[in-house]
# Entry
Amino acid sequence: MSEYLLELRNIVKRFGGLVALDNVSLALKPGEIHCLAGENGSGKSTIIKIMSGVYTPTEGEILIDGKPLGNFTPAQSVQQGIQVIYQDFSLFGNLTVAENLALNTLLLEGRKTVDWSRVRELATKALARLGVTMDLDAEVESLPTSGKQIVAIARAMMADARLIIMDEPTTALTRPEVDALFRIVRDIQSQGIAVLFVSHKMREMLEISERLTVFRNGRKVAEGPIGEFNEAAITRAMTGHDLTDQTYTWEKRGDEPPRLKIDKLSIPGVLQDIDLSLQPGEIVGLSGLIGSGRTELALALFGMNPSFTGKVEIDGKPVHPRSVQEAVAAGLAYVPEDRLSEGLFLTQSIERNMLATSFDKFVRGLFIDRKRADAATSGMFDAMQIAAPGPHTPVNHLSGGNAQRVVLARWLLTGARLLILNGPTVGVDVGSKAQIHRKIRELASQDGLAVLMISDDVPELVQNCNRVIVMHRGAFVGEVAGDQLSEDELNDRLKALK
Amino acid sequence: MTIFRRSEFIIAVILIAAMILIGLINPAFWSLDNLFGLLRSNVIIGIMALGVLVVMISGGIDVSFTAFAAAAMYLTVKIMVYYGYEGVALPFLAATVIGLVLGAMNAFFIHTFRMIPLIVTLGTGSVVRGLLLGLVGTSIVNIDKMPPQLIAFGKTNLMNSVSATGTNFGLTAMILVYAGLALVTHLFLRYTMIGRSIFAYGGAPEAAKRVGFDTRKTLLFVYCFAGALAGFAGLLQSAMIWQANPRDFGGLELDVIAAVVLGGASIFGGRGSVVGTLLGVFMLVMVKNSLIIMKVDTTWQRVVVGLIIIIATALTAWRDRKKIV
# Structure
C-alpha cells in the first residue's frame, strides 16, 4: 500500500502547440486537506480534468494507491472515489434536495425505476453524514449558494468518495458561510476523506489547508506543508513577483462640493435614513453582511429603484434617477456583482462591450464616428492592460480579471464621476486583482473619481479605501477611517453584527 | 413539490371560476350533452399535449407533431383501404410506429447537430407534410370509404342518453384511452429513471450529462414519445370523425402548446406535470367551445388562443423568475 491515495507523476498535457501542463507531479495523501493555488491559466483546471479522467495526459503516469492506471476514464475516476465539485455545482435547480442527492446513487446502481421512499432515505443519510439538516422537499433553486454547496458536497460523499476536489468553493460565500463550510470540510477529513481545494484565496488556504501546491504557467513552482508559507510567499509563488500593498490615503483639496451627497435616503423596509457625503478622489468602502442593504443602496442610486425618498446631490446638483439612463447622464457608473450575467455581452468584442453605454458620445448625425470610437477603445484597451490579442477579441475569451477590466473601461468611457463597485474582484486572481486595485486607486487620486466600493473582502476594503462604512439592516452603523482602519478592526466590527 | 402542487391548484381554481362564469352567461354549459361534448373534444388535443408536455419538460419544443399525426393517420387509413384490412389494433400500432420513427428523426437532428428544437421541428414538420401531400395524395378518405371497423371503434360510447331536444348523445369511450395514456405518462415521468432524466435534462443539461445520464437516450425517448402519441392521436381522430384528411391538424400545434403552457409547464424546461396538462387542455377546449356557443367568429378564436399562450407563458415565466431571485 502506497502512502499516497492519488499520485500524478511527470504529467505533461499539450493542446496542439500549447503546453498547459509542463512536467507536473502532485501527490495526495488519504484524509489530507491539500490546496492547489494558482492564477487563472496556471493549469489548475487542466489538472482537475486529468484527475477526473476528462483529459488524458499527453505524457506521465497516474497512480492510485500506488498502482498505475493506464487508461484513466471519468467512470474509473468516480469508481476510485474521486469526486469533483465544480463551481456551478452541477445540481438540478428544478428538482428537490432529496432527488438531487439520490440521483447519483440510483444511476450508479443501474436502477430503472424510482422508489421515492428510498430517495428520502438516501438523502437523509447523506445529510446526516455531514451533520446538517435541510428541508428535503425544497427545490434546490430556492436554496442560497451555501445550501447548494452543501447539497453538492453531500452528493459527492455518497459516491463513496475518497477524494473530493472543490473548485473555488468560497467564491460566492460570506464569511460565516465560509466558516460553516470549513467545519464541514474538517468533518469530512475526520472520516478519512481527502479534500483538494483549488483556489486563489490565500487567507482561506492558510486557514484550512495542511499542504499547499502552487502552479504558475503550467508548472509547479512551490509545494510544502502550509506552515512554510505566508501570504506574501504564496503571492510571490503565484505571480512570480511581490505585490505592494499600501493603503490608500486621501486628502481634501480645495473647496470642491461633495461629489455625492445623500440626505435621509430611505426605502421602507429596506433602507433607513442613509446620510453620506463623498468627496472627489475618495474611495469609500461599504461593508456589512449579505442583506444589509448595500446592494439596494447602490441600485437606488443607479436608478433601478426610483421609489426611494430623501435627497441625492451630485456635484451640488439635486438628482433623483428614475432609470439607468438618467443615472448615467448624472455621472454615475455601477459595476454589478455578477459581471458575467449582468454586465457583459459575452460573445461580443471587447471594443463593443466598452462602447455599450457610451455610443451616444461617438455619434455624428446618424452614424457612429468610428475613428473617434476606435481611438477611445484602443486607448482604454492599453490603459487597462487587458491581456488579449486586441480590442476585437470576444469577451468570453477573457479571464475573470480581464473581463472585469472591460466593465471598468466601459464605465470610464461614459465619463462617470462617481463609480459604484459591487464586489469588484470576486472570482479574480491575485495578480489581476492587484492591477484592478491599482487602476481604481489611480483613477481616484489622479482624476478625482469618487468611488463607492461594496465588498465582502475585508483586505480589499482596507487596502483601497480611505474610510469604510459598516452597514447593517438597512442603516449605517459605523465608520472606520484613517489609522483606525485595519483588517482586525473591521473584522471585529463585522463580527459584532448579529 | 409543493410548488407544482400550488401551480396545479391555481389552475384548478381558475378553471372552476371560468366554468362558473361561463355557466352564468350560458346555462346550457352545464347540460350533460355539452359536458360530454367537451370531454370528447379533449381527447385528441389531450393525447398530443401529453407528448408536447414531455418535450417541454426536457427543455425543447415540438411543432412537427401535427404533421406527423396527419402522416401516420393518412398513411395507415390509405393502406387499410387499399388492402381492405379489417381490424383495429394493428392499424393503431402502425400509426404509433410511424409517429415514433418520425419523432426519432427529430431527436437525431437535435442531438447530433445540437440544433434548436424549434427549427428542427419546423423543418421536419414542413417536410413530412409536404411529402405526404406530394407523394401520397391530397384526396380526403370519406365516410363511405373509411374502414367500418375503425368507425365502429370510434363510435364506442360509455353511456348513452337523450337530450332535452330529443337527440341522442353519449360519452365517448375514447376518454378512457386518453385517461389511460395520461396515467401511464404520469407514472412514467414520476417513477422511472428515464422519466426523471427528462426533468434533469430540462433543468440542467450539462449537469445531467455529468451525473451520468445517457442524454442521447433521453432526447431520443422524448421525441419518439411525442411522435408516437401524435401518430396514435392522428388515427384516433380519423376514427372519431369518420374521415381521413391529409390536411388535418394544420395549426393545431398552437392549441396544444397553449394547453400545455396553460397547464403550468415551463417554457424553460424542467417543470410541468400531467395533472396540470389535463387541466390546461380542459381549460383551452372549454374556452374555445364557449366561444363557439357564444357565436364568436372563428378568426377571433385564433386571437384568443394566441392571447392564452402569451398570458400563460408570461405567468409561468414570472413564476420561475421569482423563484430564482
User: Anything to note?
Assistant: Residues 430-447 of chain A form the longest helix (18 residues). Chain A touches chain B at residues 86, 88, 90-96, 99, 103-104, 106-108, 111-114, 116, 137, 139, 141-142 (CB under 8 Å). The mean pLDDT of chain A is 86.
